[in-house]
Amino acid sequence: MAASFSLHHLTHCFLSSSRSKVLSNGWSRRPGGRYSFSGGADDRGRPIRAAVETPPFPLFQPPPLEESPSELEPADPDFYKIGYVRSTRAYGIEFKEGPDGFGVYASKDVEPLRRARVIMEIPLELMLTIRQKLPWMFFPDIVPIGHPIFDIINSTNPETDWDLRLACLLLYAFDREDNFWQLYGDFLPSADECTSLLLATEDDLLELQDPDLASTMRQQQQRVLEFWEKNWHSGVPLKIKRLACDPERFKWAVSIAQSRCINMQIRVGALVQDANMLIPADMLNHSFEPNCFFHWRFKDRMLEVMINAGQRIKKGDEMTINYMPGQKNDMLMQRYGFSSSVNPWDVIQFSGDARIHLDSFLSVFNISGLPEQYYHNSHLSNDGDTFVDGAVIAAARTLPTWSDGDLPPVPSMERKAVKELQEECQQMLAKFPTTSEQDQKLLESMPDSRRILETAIKYRMHRKLLIEKIIRALDIYQDRILF
Amino acid sequence: MALSSATSLYQDRGLRGIVSAYSGKPGYNNVKTEFFGSFPAGVLQVKVGLDKSLRRISLCPCIKCERKDEPFEYVSVERPPYYSYMDSTSGKLEPASGARASIPGEEYWPEGTASRVRAARAPEPTGKSLGSPSYGKNPGSRRKKHRTKVAAPESSPVTVESSDEETVEPSDLVTSDVVEDTIEEPKDSSSEYVVYQMEPEAEEESGYQLDKTVGRPHPFIDPEVKKPIEKPLTSDELWWNWRKPDKEQWSRWQRRRPDVETVFLKAMAETGQVKLYGEHPTLTETSLYRAIRHLFKDERLRAEQERLERDGPIAYYSEWVKGWKKDTSREAIQKHFEETGEDENAQLLEMFCHQTDLWGGDPVYPTVNYIQDPNEIIDYRGPDFHEPTPNMLAYLKEHGKIISREELEKIMAKEKTEQLEMTDMDEAMAQAVDIGENEDEGDDIEEEEEEKITRNWSVLKSTPELRKSKPKPKKNDPMSLEDAVKDSENLTDFLMDFEEDK
Asked: More exposed terminus of chain A, fewer Cβ within 10 Å: N or C?
């Protein structure tokens, strides 16, 4: 319900402002930037993967809809001032803080230009950047030669331990005098607000109702703990010891590093490198239909947050980024600690042979585009249709379908296939210990619960909502199938 | 010459205006006063030391037109985009409203100026923050602590409470800080203090470590820790490799330059004939390859030479002559020589005449180039080939493109009969008087005059009576060639011989 309501607003946003032709925005449209977004959590050498999270709760849909606007209030002026003093600039946006964290909102309307507009620019000296490959280069180079933290960073596995390296660097930056991160760290989510599953207890992991994700997270936690124990043992010098006195602090640092890191290909000097960066622009939330993207301006070494070209923005719209394009909810949960019920890339494993006709499914819901870029074509449908959202697009991608040129679907077989699929969905729902309504009630009944617990419950609720939505979509498909 | 310009007053609409007053008289001491700066709306203060002869500067905020009835022209001053700039000539910060040429617009600014200007124009954040930084000790301390609100009626009292809290911010922040401090103190307390170890533990060293500390001779690597080298690293993986190829070369010119030997060596390594130390052959391996190849080639050549000497040339080369079936042993050649007298070379040539394929090249390292079948029938017909149109001849004859031989001869004969007419001409020509040369003699003139008339061709031609008498008997009907041939005494009559009189 909340999801569909927000969808309505979203389509309204894009439809109502278009008197003239506005390019139909895709649910997973690649933003019109200079980069190609590719998925994958741990691969190197690919160009940019923009992956940024907000403080604790990245709001995947425009938050003014989930919370009444009065709950959003302007952020602490110091939040911008500490950056402004160090040549960060924000143009035409304002930072607001709500119960779920920070967000960036437009302060004035933006006409759709052919050029991407800059809304924020951040110099390199404010960020914590490590090159992904050996030799690790730090921008800015705050680690002095001979400091034992460098040995710790050096001992990490070059391919998989990027988050540990960033966490060490972050902790060291906290310790360094006059470092921006000492000031900015106050605005990062603390350990009780951070929803990353690294800080989850065993109960929270069980609440996920997803054994794979739970085991992955256990492994991750184990890995982080081992690393801390190996490098922060009792004999370690004080300048290391005071960085992370206890494993919780280190875990928190690793969760921050994982959830707020961007991987970008930047060019510094003559060298083009893939770098992991922790930037002060990570208060941007995630959306599957982002407004903005990151751009590296190598001339003066600034990271720019730019609005997509041709994007019309009204005052008060939220500026969003696609953190990890094309990933399922469990990847989002694992890396960033949030999930969405309208993730258009979610995958449900169907077994069995039942298949529905892809083309008629797409035409019933007016979904057009290539399989990589399905979007709801609002020009074809009347404006009142608000059923189609990311979940239906995920359904279009993940339902087993067949498509054979011009071969028309046989209605009886289609109905049969639909029934089988619906049964399978019901079976999947039945396998969960709770239903989505029960989860909803549970969430409502404990408004003051810990964030991680809430996130875990929401994760499973979203999964069930997705399945339910698929069932409803199949119903509508059955009704509207053309004969 | 001093400019004499009317004082221009810009109607002030809150814009900055430039007022400059010049004295009008040429000989007058120019009192130039120029005013910069912004003028408040509606007030123009002009302080000029003017001669009375100068026109009074009126304070009316309009532009005086020459013609009174024309409406006012409302001029807006172009505001420069910034108030000051770094002047390239003086190198100093100059005001934009100075007396220099107008500053070019944004299109002409040097690279990066636009972003610097935009960064400089961005307004500084105002507002006072209520919290204070913790400098890395309490991350998240300056966030507003709200609880997540799920859309539910129960949340509204909570929202009311939180909004109440927000209005009473300062105290709340203080209280929340206090609350946080009390929570976080047990965590932080250990970091405030430094724990010293009172008694250092003495570790017993032995073996390799002892040797090392004491200074006795020891191997470089601890023999207990030492691992045998399982797989030698490629040159890229070795620690001293400072070069990072990464396959990200920006041009093809950066690749390894191919050399015949290195390429072949690498190919041989890939197929497994040769084992290289790394991916690419080194100089040593290449020279080794070269040496081995040389030795092999030498050996083979020597073996071939020896075989040639042993078997004789005919036997040696008969390997390549497929068509030569005869016995090629030395005895057979000797026998053949005795029988026919052809020595070895002649027989060799004989054999080569039977060579059909594999021409050219070295029999030891033969090159298969161009094998032809001598009995091949080459078919030149292509896809456009078709049978010729039948009865072309009849077709052409019909259309008159070809005539038969008889008709041709007839036509030729007609042409010949015209030549007979020409001989008549000759008679007339013969009777004509030669006018040109013998005009001096008077006697001849009489004769000539008589003869003129008779021989004069043109006279003859123009008098029909004379003409009729002569050619008629000759020109009865056009004679065919055969008749003419029969008529004449000899064929030489038909020759065009003007020298003999007919």
From this structure: C
**Distance, CA of A53 to CA of A196 (rounded, Å):** 10
Nearest Cα neighbor of A322 from A81, A51, A98 is A51
Let me know: does A109 contact A299? Beta carbons within 8 Å.
Answer: no
DSSP B277: S
Beta strands A320-321 and A285-286 are parallel
B128 vs chain A: nearest CA distance in angstroms? Answer: 6
> What is residue B93's three-state secondary structure?
strand
Q: What is the mean pLDDT of residues B291-309?
A: 94
Q: To which H or E segment does residue B472 belong?
A: helix B471-474
pLDDT of A67-80, one tens digit each? 556 788 888 899 99
Give the length of chain A: 483
Q: Is B249 on the interface with A (CB under 8 A)?
A: no
Report how far residue A167's alpha carbon sits from residue A259's, in angstroms, rounded to the nearest whole number.
11
Amino acid at B497: D
| Contact between A431 and A297 (Cβ < 8 Å) | no
The answer to whether residues A307 and A313 touch, using CB atoms and an 8 Å cutoff, is yes
Can you give the three-state secondary structure of B25-42, one letter per residue? Answer: CCCCCCCCEEECCCCCCC
Nearest to A183 among B133, B143, B149 (CB): B133
Q: Which residue has the tokens 């809290």?
A: B165
> Which of B129, B146, B158 has its CB closest to that of A78?
B129
From the list B122, B140, B141, which residue is nearest A89 (CB)? Answer: B122
CB half-sphere exposure, A44, CA atoms < 13 A: 14
Q: How far apart are CA B127 and CA A78, in angstroms?
A: 8
Instruction: Take residue B487 and report the two structure tokens written for it.
Output: 């008529």
What number of C-beta contacts closer than 8 Å exist between A and B?
134
CA distance A136 to A272: 13
Cβ of A448 within 8 Å of Cβ of B154? The answer is no
pLDDT tens for B350-379 read 998 888 775 655 656 555 555 667 787 877
- Least confident range of A26-30, A154-158, B2-6, B10-14: A26-30
Residues of B (175-194) whose Cβ lies below 8 Å from A: 187, 190-191, 194
Q: Is the pTM of this model over 0.90?
A: no
The backbone torsions φ and ψ at residue A427, rounded to the nearest 5 degrees and listed phi first, read -65, -45
- Give a three-class secondary structure readout of chain A: CHHHHHHHHHHHHHHHCCCCCCCCCCCCCCCCCCCCCCCCCCCCCCCCECCCCCCCCCCCCCHHHHCCHHHCEECCHHHHHHHHCCCCEECCEEEEEECCEEEEEECCCECCCCCCEEEEEEEHHHCEEEECCCCCCEECCCCCCCCHHHHHHHCCCCCCCHHHHHHHHHHHHHHCCCCHHHHHHHHCCCCCCCCCHHHCCHHHHHHCCCHHHHHHHHHHHHHHHHHHHHHCCCCCCHHHHCCCCCHHHHHHHHHHHHHHEEEEEEEECCEEEEEEEECCCCCCEECCCCCEEEEEECCCCEEEEEECCCCCECCCCECEECCCCCCCHHHHHHHHCCCCCCCCCCCCCCCCCCCEEHHHHHHHCCEECCHHHCEECCCCCCCCCCCCCHHHHHHHHHCCEECCCCCCCCHHHHHHHHHHHHHHHHHHHHHCCCCHHHHHHHHHHCCCCCHHHHHHHHHHHHHHHHHHHHHHHHHHHHHHCCC
Q: Is the dihedral of CA A360, A363, A368, A374 positive or negative?
A: negative
Backbone angles phi and psi of B229, in degrees to 5 = -75, 110
Q: How many residues does chain B have?
A: 502
Cα angle A259, A13, A295; round to 5: 40
Lowest mean pLDDT among A26-40, A444-458, B51-65, B246-260: A26-40
Task: Determine phi and psi for A315, rounding to 5 degrees.
Answer: -65, 130
ipTM of the complex as predicted: 0.71
